[in-house]
User: Which sequence fits this backbone?
């Protein structure tokens, strides 16, 4: 199998240019590419369009890239757990495109799957339907939505192998598999990196064909937004 | 006396059918899980990719990689499954989830719902709400009958930007249980204990349909 | 979790009526619902529309239901490894709708996912494009294709649990997961049936929500069409 | 002398780039796998749900649950992955497979391909061929230059029902290697050993473009 391993996050993101369109996996702070985000902070590129379900918090996740003003536009379903985000949005420094979560995940899936457009009921009759084609099927109305693709996708998995195969853990899977398929270049960071052949082919969540670079991430913080316990 | 949030959650729990798959929204809907009768088996779906949400974890069980749609740490029930976000909404959009329970800021008499945006306030996004309301066969809304300033939230037409049209079938408020009829109108089914029909009338701006005697809710569900 | 176990194939298919639309998993003879097919033979219902990538061979798989003239129509991507099939087709006893394999699998996926229609490039400019809407995206032409759904889906998995969760093995997965989601009633047969809680939630291929009935299959023959070996 | 099937497969194997993902059709394309140089690593995709096809199994390794798109029993290479048919064609349609090699009954000078149906004969279906030809960025066709009755199969226009339009970029036949130019026309690149340009001219009905000296193919690839 083709070896896709790079040494570090810095080497993985080396060619991401200013004004790139990125996809970043994760739901809230769960399953986000912590190492790649740090490498982008260090690299200091600007004008990024980030497609990600959420925008992190002030001091973690994509929120860090907002602090450094590296993000020009967010495409998300839910944002603003995050004061700096709110400030930039209200001041017009940041563009935001809000998309229903199911439509967002399906548009990304469509991007990876070569489906340029599909019909979905979400948002029919609401303001997000403005300017969109409406069609009725079996007596119900649907909106036509188009695919989303990215120059680079940054995903985070639990285990990965040198051929780029990925296995996620728990609900940290979320948007990562679709984004892996929808990026022209997909960079995967993993907690555990093993030689090709060690993962069970039947348990792979993201086949290696979708991953161009893979590296072992370090110092995962895995911050919890709502630590909720019972006695 | 008007119900508190716990009361609303308890009343909604009575609507839950054995063997159903349910998506619970954030807020009061999440509380409903606590009042599902012991003899009823349901599976809770979390739109971030989990079927079979269990109780909140004990401190030592907390796993950052296992959260619900409200970003709270959770556990899994035996027989759970994990999947990606596209699969999760395929499940929702495809009509596989039997019941969706969610909160609302306004509901109109033809079943429109507004629960994602207040003009002039910071817009945080619709999350999965538009997908849920556009897809679900059966939606129950948990809400206060009136706003803090005393305005009715059960309206002829929603004044806020809507999340979905003609989708709400049943509403449980602090004052009443109501169905939304296919032809439009809030049909009053039950009153909260001690709340009069007149009180409900005064609190409902949209078309209220009252037929015969309106019984009081029964809330004697064993607390779990 | 909800217990979905039924005792036998006969009990699982008890209410499938004449003229039902069925989906049957499998690619060639690999991953086909052997037990459910046998139960349908025994039940003797007729006028079936069968959506399945292939149509079996003369004496195995869907081919058995052709011998007994139970099938009115096949919706497939590749057929005719099968003399009786050919005879019925040429004599007009059997209707056949041939669909490109990727379009077929995506139409079934769309059926389960609540997507009534989507655009795909397959078949543009060919005879299967006749009567279909064509639209250009980014300079390439696509056909609009609609979802497929079934009254009953018959799928075969390797392991399953009492909650209906399924794990497939090898390339026996093929169409089974999409069909499980696209059936109004989905009947799963498995080689090994375990109590809910024994399968790793992270390794489930078909979440139990898609499966209405599950049973432990018996006497799997797993016939091989092209046994090819090396020395 | 015209190439045999092995010869065509050997010549196609020279087109394969290190690190590529390849879908091989049934027939001659399947043979190509045997002639990929040892120093080149590729991953073979099987559209029934496998990335990383290995060699045919030894008798005791045969697994009925592990077959290729030709329904032959196979094995898996280390680093393989298994997936469902929708994912497999998502991979193909999404342009993730770098190279598709397939057979054809006819190819036209503008890159149309016909390989699924002969009027008057039993139609078995297109399988995955229409998806593959409509989606692949790079398609190489392996075919005989002429039919058994001596008719050219490299035509101005296909006479058989087509599988896809304007998709073929390169053809390797028993007589020649040819590119199909974006503006149309078969550009002759190489001759089979001992085959003359005139022989290829006579065997090609479509527009044949001959520029300068046409070299002979080199086929001295180590057999595996």
Assistant:
């Amino acid at each position: 199998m083709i070896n896709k391993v790079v040494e570090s996050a810095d080497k993985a993101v080396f060619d991401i240019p200013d004004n790139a369109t990125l996809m970043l996996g994760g739901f809230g702070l769960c399953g986000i590419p912590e190492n790649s985000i740090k490498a982008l902070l260090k690299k200091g590129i600007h004008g990024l369009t980030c497609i990600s379900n959420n925008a992190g918090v002030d001091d973690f996740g994509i929120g860090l890239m907002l602090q450094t003003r590296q993000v020009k536009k967010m495409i998300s379903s839910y944002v603003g757990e995050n004061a700096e985000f709110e400030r930039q949005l209200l001041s017009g420094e940041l563009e935001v495109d809000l998309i229903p979560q199911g439509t967002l995940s399906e548009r990304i899936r469509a991007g990876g799957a070569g489906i340029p457009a599909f019909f979905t009921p979400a948002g029919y009759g609401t303001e997000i339907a403005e300017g969109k084609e409406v069609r009725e099927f079996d007596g119900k109305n649907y909106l036509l939505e188009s695919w989303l693709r990215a120059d680079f996708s940054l995903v985070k998995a639990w285990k990965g192998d040198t051929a780029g195969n990925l296995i996620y853990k728990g609900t940290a899977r979320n948007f990562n598999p679709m984004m892996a398929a929808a990026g022209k270049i997909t960079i995967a960071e993993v907690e555990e990196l093993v030689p090709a052949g060690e993962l069970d082919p039947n348990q792979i969540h993201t086949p290696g064909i979708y991953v161009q670079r893979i590296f072992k991430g370090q110092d995962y913080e895995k911050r919890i937004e709502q630590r909720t316990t019972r006695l | 006396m008007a119900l508190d949030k716990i009361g609303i959650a308890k009343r909604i729990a009575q609507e839950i059918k054995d063997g159903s798959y349910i998506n619970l929204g954030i807020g009061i809907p999440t509380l409903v899980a606590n009042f599902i009768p012991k003899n009823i088996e349901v599976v809770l779906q979390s739109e971030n990719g989990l079927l079979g949400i269990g109780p909140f974890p004990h401190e030592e069980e907390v796993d950052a990689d296992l959260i619900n749609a409200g970003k709270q740490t959770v556990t899994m029930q035996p027989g759970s499954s994990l999947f990606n976000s596209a699969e999760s909404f395929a499940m929702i959009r495809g009509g596989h989830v039997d019941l969706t329970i969610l909160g609302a800021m306004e509901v109109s008499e033809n079943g429109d719902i507004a629960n994602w945006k207040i003009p002039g306030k910071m817009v945080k996004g619709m999350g999965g709400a538009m997908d849920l309301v556009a897809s679900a066969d059966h939606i129950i809304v948990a809400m206060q009958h009136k706003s803090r300033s005393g305005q009715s939230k059960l309206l002829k037409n929603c004044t806020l930007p809507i999340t979905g049209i003609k989708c709400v079938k049943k509403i449980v408020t602090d004052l009443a249980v109501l169905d939304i009829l296919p032809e439009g109108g809030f049909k009053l089914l039950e009153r909260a204990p001690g709340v009069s029909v007149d009180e409900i009338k005064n609190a409902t701006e949209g078309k209220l349909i009252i037929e015969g005697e309106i019984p009081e809710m029964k809330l004697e569900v064993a607390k779990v």
Summary: Residues 161 and 213 of chain B are 35 Å apart (CA to CA). Chain B is about 15% helix and 25% strand.
